[in-house]
Amino acid sequence: MKALILNRAVEDKITITDVVLPELKEDEVKIQVKAAALNHRDEWARQGLYPNLKDGVVMGSDGAGIVIEVGKNLSQEWIGKEVIINPANNWGTNEKAQSREFHILGMPTNGTFAEFVQVKADRVHEKPAFLTWEEAASLPLGGLTAYRALMVQGGLQKGENVLVTGFGGGVAQFATQFAIAFGAEVYVSSSSPDKINTALDLGAKGGFNYTEENWSEKAVEKTGGFDLVVDSAMGDTINHLINVIKPGGKLVYYGATKGNPTDLNARKVFWNQLQLIGSTMGSDKNFKDMLSFVSLHKIKPIIDHVYDLQDAIGAFIKMKSGKQLGKIVLKVF
User: Fold this and answer.
1) For the segment 32-54, what is each residue's pLDDT rounded down to a tens digit?
2) Which pLDDT score is estimated for 322?
3) Closest of 57, 62, 73 to residue 31, by C-alpha
4) CATH top-level class for 144-278?
5) How far apart are CA 307 and CA 66, in angstroms?
6) Residues 6+ away with beta carbon under 8 Å from 199
7) Could you give the residue range(s) of every CATH 3.40.50.720 domain in the chain?
8) 242: helix, coil or strand?
């Protein structure tokens, strides 16, 4: 089969080549991949910035397709089903945090940027019928991460003021859509006026350009502050976020793309009874709940661009630029 693998011996660090999958295990299903979507982790792996990298591994965490073969311990009823893949493996039994064996599909195990992928049957769920293949492929990693950050770690309540930072990326778009659907008063931040306008079209109440020096003061003046902030940047932006959170509020962060803070206004954190909460992906229960929520509210992912598998280099270049609005998708079949 054709697949996109990590190959650090070549200039682009990725190669489309022929790959032979191992024999299907008794608890696995084989899926003909219809579409797959990029996440930042794929580009970070290409840049050598992700742990446990292995050349020759098929990349990609997000995907949707049709079951064409099942292991001997599984019902033949799976054959022909249209499915979406949960890329979170081995979460474990503790809903509060993942196990030591937790890993994400696509590195260090073969992922979805291929004509076929083999995963355990408990990783697949029926594709929501109202989603296209490209939309379904866009949902898993970003949707799961956003759902846990908002609903589980953030404990979102209807009517709360919510700020989603960095609107435009996958998780941020889902967090915005989910919070709006749940009945929160949602605001976003971005460096792009066009992205802020898209959030407004989705139902956000307002947006703030975080490149403006006094954006946090404007945010507090307009909103009175936020009950919940969902962020992926951290770094030295953290004190701006601390300044816009109401007393007793929460900052949930699922990434640190700007690195660790060099300074933290610790006094304001304890005096205002703030909670700083980390969040990563989500449990199997979180994934099921997320799919139910998406189906109930008929939430459709925003797609920036669809590339054919053979044009994957262009997709990675677009991801690296950071200028996308929504998900970048690879059409496979």
Assistant:
1) 999 999 999 999 999 999 888 99
2) 86
3) 62
4) alpha beta
5) 20
6) 167, 176, 186, 188, 190, 207
7) 144-278
8) helix
